[in-house]
């Protein structure tokens, strides 16, 4: 495998990891909202009966909710970081592939900055731009 293909495969894995982390973050946030609803129910039961065990149950649910929200935030940030690293890895894969092809061919284009992007990379950047709002980027 060429270094460009290795970097490209790594970038695709990072995109998948980023999307998975973001989906896991959304699930944890939903669990946190469910715990909040259960906490409200426990608070209502506490105010109705004024029994100490309901208060303890409410505090336990609040602790669980805080813990889930911390995990959700951590996974959300991890997903955004993996997504950003994946986009940078895609750019690095293109630079390495293009650079090696220029070195092997020994001919430089008239203007290096205007060298065309390969279609695979354009498709990858299109997918990245499509997924960016889902990942919370931009």
Task: Please write out the topology.
Elements: H1 3-49, H2 52-105, H3 119-135
Helix pairs in contact: 1-2, 1-3, 2-3
Query: Looking at the structure, what is the overall shape?
Result: rod-shaped
Count the domains: 1
User: What structural class do you assign from the helix and strand content?
Assistant: mainly alpha
Order of helices and strands: HHH
Percent helix range: over 70%
DSSP strand tally: 0
Radius of gyration using CA atoms only: 24 Å
**End-to-end separation:** 34 Å
**Biggest pleated sheet:** none
Overall residue-averaged pLDDT value: 72
Beta-strand level of the residues, as a percent range? under 5%
Low-confidence stretches: none
Number of helices: 3
Description:
The chain is mainly α and 138 residues long. The chain has one domain (3-135). The protein is built from 3 helices and no strands. The longest helix has 54 residues, at 52-105. The protein is rod-shaped and about 80 Å long.
Structure summary:
86% of the residues lie in helices and 0% in strands. It is an all-alpha fold.
From the structure above, extract its key features:
mainly alpha, 3 helices, single chain
């Amino acid at each position: 495998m060429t270094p460009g293909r290795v970097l490209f495969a790594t970038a695709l894995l990072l995109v998948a990891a980023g999307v998975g982390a973001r989906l896991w973050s959304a699930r944890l946030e939903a669990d946190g909202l469910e715990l909040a609803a259960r906490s409200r129910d426990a608070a209502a039961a506490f105010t109705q009966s004024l029994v100490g065990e309901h208060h303890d149950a409410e505090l336990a649910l609040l602790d669980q909710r805080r813990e889930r929200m911390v995990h959700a935030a951590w996974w959300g940030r991890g997903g955004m970081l993996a997504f950003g690293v994946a986009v940078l890895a895609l750019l690095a894969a293109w630079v390495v592939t293009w650079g090696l092809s220029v070195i092997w061919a020994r001919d430089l284009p008239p203007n290096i900055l205007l060298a065309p992007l390969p279609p695979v990379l354009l498709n990858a950047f299109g997918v990245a731009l499509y997924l960016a709002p889902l990942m919370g980027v931009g």
